[in-house]
Amino acid sequence: MRTWDAVIVGAGAAGLFCAGVAGQRGLKVLLIDHSDKIAEKIRISGGGRCNFTNRLLDASAPQKHFISQNPHFCRSALSRYTPQDFIDLVQKHGIAFHEKHKGQLFCDHSAEDIIRMLLAECTAGGVTLQTACGVQAVRALDNGYELQTTQGPVQTRSLVVATGGLSIPKIGATGWGYEVATQFGLRLVERRPGLVPLSFDGEAWQPYAQLAGLALPVGIETGDKKARMHFDEDLLFTHRGLSGPAVLQISSYWKGGTPIRLNLAPEVNLPERLQDAKLRSKKLLGNELAALVPSRLAEAWVGQDPALQRTSAEVPDKALNKLAEALSNWSLTPTGSEGYKKAEVTLGGVDTRDVSSQTMESKQAGLYFIGEVIDVTGWLGGYNFQWAWASAHACAMALPDAPPA
Ligand code: FDA
């Protein structure tokens, strides 16, 4: 049986990148994926254009953009392999890209460009790729590991787990990485869906269900004074609840049973503008409000309260103030999230206390973890891919050299 220098399980973002870098260092690398279609998350990412990194990532203050029980864990890898390093690689492959807002970089054409690039890097490193290959069992040897796979046994000196998180099971996500960690006595941080739409009680949501499809910029926050998190992003109303970047971002910080607060008119001083309308306007309040917020939103709010269905001048100050407060500080408690079926990432994972931040090797010698399987989760906006690239690079550079022939 052939012994590989490194077997990498999971041909997603982290696994593909790690394989290419390690292969180009001269290691004999086998990359395995149980799916016959690799890199599915890259393919569907960024609406098909892959938001592959973020120019604003601040590796010296990772807690700004990453969530982990130890937010400083990711600092070393992120500062050694930076967004600019990945941009250089993308440029070397002639892939056209552009910046959207807040430092987010997307392919001009398609996420397939990134997959092709990663595969080309693997080819340059002489990596062997085995798809539709499941791993049934892993056993530690004196100097490495033996894997029973659906395509036969393989031996390796180093084993790299790059199987990602639990989100979107229908395209191949499994908890295999967590099982391997547990098998070798490593600790896990509780997992839950992140970057996920939030849902609300059906009946209570009824007045807002008519707003499905409406998108608008908002301020959104959650948490108490000690741990308040705030984002200014776009919100999307859905049939079941709320989505859009604002809600995806806040969902990673939201704790079940607690409220989120929304400012639906963050650029308008609503109390002042409504009072002003009351003094000078003969129009219905709903029409005045529709000039300040999207008209469907104005209709939904005014429609809920007969006291507001009059001309602005006729609406009592108290009702006006209540309306301004309701729109600029709308507090509502989600019943839950839409779960792994819709989540972009998995929070939690392999406990960073059991993994080296320099090499990604775990306390179990020769066993490495990279990418989303570790308890490191980034914000929306290219941060999760940058973590995949950076952790993969740290690991690939640290894998032991092949022994002399
Ligand atoms: P990844 O999930 O990429 O790869 C894991 C691989 O392991 C898969 O190929 C899977 O088939 C394989 N695997 C799983 N279990 C296995 C087993 N038991 N045996 C063998 N193989 C197994 N991030 C970002 O920065 N910018 C973006 O634009 C987006 N957009 C986005 C959209 C959507 C819809 C989702 C769901 C996610 C994103 N993300 C994102 C997040 C990003 O896709 C994610 O964080 C990275 O892909 C994680 O990379 P990994 O390599 O760790 O896992």
Separation of termini? 16 Å
Q: Which ligands are bound?
A: dihydroflavine-adenine dinucleotide
Helical percentage: 25-40%
Number of helices: 13
Largest sheet: 7 strands, mixed
Radius of gyration: 25 Å
- The name of the CATH architecture of the largest domain is 3-Layer(bba) Sandwich
Count the domains.
Answer: 2
Describe, in plain words, how this protein is organized in 3D.
With about 400 residues, this protein is of the alpha+beta class. It has helices at about 15-25, 40-45, 75-80, 85-90, 110-125, 175-185, 200-210, 245-250, 270-280, 285-290, 295-305, 315-330, 385-400; strands at about 5-10, 30, 50-55, 65, 95-100, 105, 130, 135-140, 145-150, 150-160, 190-195, 200, 215-220, 230-235, 240-245, 260-265, 330, 335, 345-350, 365-370, 375-380. The strands form 5 sheets. Strands 1, 2, 7, 8, 9, 10 and 20 form a 7-stranded mixed sheet that branches. A 7-stranded antiparallel sheet has the order 17-16-13-14-15-12-18. It is elongated, with a radius of gyration of 25 Å. Dihydroflavine-adenine dinucleotide binds near residues 167 and 176.
What's this entry about, in short?
This protein is 31% helix and 24% strand. The protein is of the alpha+beta class and 405 residues long. The radius of gyration is 25 Å and the shape is elongated.
Summary tags:
405 residues, alpha+beta, FAD/NAD(P)-binding domain, Elongation Factor Tu (Ef-tu), domain 3, 2 domains, seven-stranded mixed β-sheet, seven-stranded antiparallel β-sheet, elongated, binds dihydroflavine-adenine dinucleotide
